[in-house]
Amino acid sequence: MSSSHTDPSDIARIFALQQARQWDVKASGAEARKAKLTKLKAAVEAHADDIIAAVQADTRKPEQEIRITEVLNVTANIQRNIDNLDSWMAPTQVTPSLNPDDSAQIIYEARGVCLILGPWNFPLGLTFGPLAAAIAAGNCCMVKLTDLCPATAKIAGRIVREVFEEDEVALFEGDVSIAEALLELPFSHIFFTGSTRVGKIVMAAAAKHLASVTLELGGKSPVIIDEGADIDKIAEALANAKQFNGGQACICPDYVFVKEAYKDQLVSAFQTKVRENLYSESGTFKKEAIAQIVNAGNFGRVKSLFDDAVAKGATIAVGGELEESDLTIRPTMLTDVTPDMEILQEEIFAPVLPVMTYDDLDQAIGYVSARDKPLALYIFSNNEANVQKILARTSSGGVTVNGVFSHYLENNLPFGGVNQSGMGSYHGYFGFKAFSHERAVYRHQ
């Protein structure tokens, strides 16, 4: 198998190899692709302990979180592609409208040589998930993990080299200069997961070569709590969501709208759940149960948002402990926040949750709809008319009603953003489609 790729001089060489190889890979049938996916799944399973150790070294995540997101979720995604590939690859028959005696079909063909750029918050899961879809669709791929997770990148590179030759899939380690060099190449498709800021850079690079893109970005995902909803259950869901990966998830609830009459109950129930999850009976905080902020730069960014809010009048209702020595932020809830505060203008990406109140539902709807379209929207309501009103008057990548994260976890739904929160979607069949071109074929009799 191929060696580790950390040298920029490898980039052009491997791209040329994959350009030459792409037609053989494109012509491969379902059985050949499933065999590759089966081998990839086996390699992930064989290296499960190595993956967990690497991600812990990079991020200090709890072991069970890593096992779920970076191992079990990855193997489940791969298996889903294996189980469904025959039906996904089958041509779609179309009855010609002008001459029914002719025949027409849509065939799904590989895009060619693709670039996958992964993020740091779920470094393996959000890289190998798209990779599995790209392989299922018959593509060659060049892959780059973030330099913020070097240990994970190393084990990911080892797995890729065990499964693939470099003329089909190659994984690059190294700093941002490697990603910049990759973006200079005329890929057929680029799949990027990360910030909106970097997403714009990726899209600009793709435009030079008219490459198609899938951009999985983020944004400020709002929570709207309707009158009459179960506040205690909502607080529990929000506390669990903010604890998960230390709040560093693109679909994490970012701010909350609740009626003033229910604010104190929400705060109290949130605090109760945080204490239940993260404190011992003696009151000791269990740091091992929550991921640290990924690095000092991001910790400083979050602290700046927090300090600005407090300086402008926000109340620390829960938590408020930001421990720079080991990059730990305890789950925090802020009340009395106002739109002029920076914490309501930038994605937080940490276990800090601002709460605003509203008198009329239209106020919350108006606030959300006047801003960039978020990746996720969470509605807690027992009033279907109000749910429909919020859906009709807002836009977001996806929505979960009376819960969190569920629209992401359901792989029969497309997952992706809209405008500022992303472009294109994936998961399951939609991932196969993201890495495929729908080719029209018409046959005269």
Tell me what the structure shows.
The chain has 445 residues and is α/β, with parallel strands linked by helices. The protein folds into two domains: 9-217 and 417-443, 3-Layer(aba) Sandwich (Aldehyde Dehydrogenase, Chain A, domain 1); 221-409, 3-Layer(aba) Sandwich (Aldehyde Dehydrogenase, Chain A, domain 2), CATH 3.40.309. The chain has 15 helices and 18 strands. It has helices spanning 9-26, 30-46, 48-59, 63-89, 125-136, 150-163, 176-182, 196-208, 231-243, 260-278, 296-311, 361-369, 384-393, 406-409, 428-434, and strands at 92-94, 103-110, 113-117, 140-144, 169-172, 189-193, 212-216, 221-225, 253-259, 315-318, 322-323, 328-329, 332-335, 352-358, 376-380, 398-401, 422-423, 436-443. A seven-stranded mixed β-sheet has the order 10-13-14-9-8-15-16, sandwiched between helices. Strands 5-4-3-6-7-17 form a six-stranded mixed β-sheet, with helices on both faces. It has a three-stranded antiparallel β-sheet with strand order 1-2-18. Strand 11 (322-323) and strand 12 (328-329) form a beta hairpin. The mean pLDDT is 96.
